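Suppose a colleague, Dr. K., hands you the sequence of a protein chain of 210 amino acids and asks what its three-dimensional shape might be. Before reaching for any lab equipment, you can write down a predicted structure in token form. Begin with the sequence itself:
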Amino acid sequence: MNERGILIVVSGFSGAGKGTLMKRLLEKYEERYALSVSATTRQPREGECDGIEYFFKTKEEFEKMIAKEELIEYARYVENYYGTPRAYVEQMLEAGKDVILEIEIQGALKVKKAFPDTLLLFVVPPSAEELKHRLVGRGTESMEVIESRLKRAVEESDGMEQYDYLIVNDDLEICVEEMHQIICGEHHRSSRNMGFIQQMKEELKDLKGE
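The predicted structure, expressed as tokens, is then:
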């Protein structure tokens, strides 16, 4: 029996280290996980390839996908659409891969509504001070942008308790292992194994009747 994969949504504050965490998890357990590729109407940046970083679509193509309900969730940011194609996710889950979606809270809750079995993980730094330290340490953004990211984090923190697990990203390797163990444990949850439970009950009844 090919065990169906689990749909996992990972969210977290900008600067919490989600991207690095996902990259390391996929490097370490390549055969186990698939990172969902989003569709977008924004232009490819230098070095980006269609189907790798994103599925690049025109506005018309994207709106057709919305109309045909081919997206699990979508949102619009700064004149561009971003969304999660349903077919790709379904294909990976059927192949037995645990599919990870790295999206923000609003999208995460939409996914949970459409797929109640979704596992929601929220990545946090050890402290708010550490979050600011990491954002400043990147050296790629102005203080104005950093302040806006911290302000956004305050708003996002209101949704933290709606997630199944918090992942504290302090030591990367420990964090990767913790995340992997949570997902492995989730596969054993009784509600995800109703078919097996039913089969066991029937086999036991058959044994009793021998």
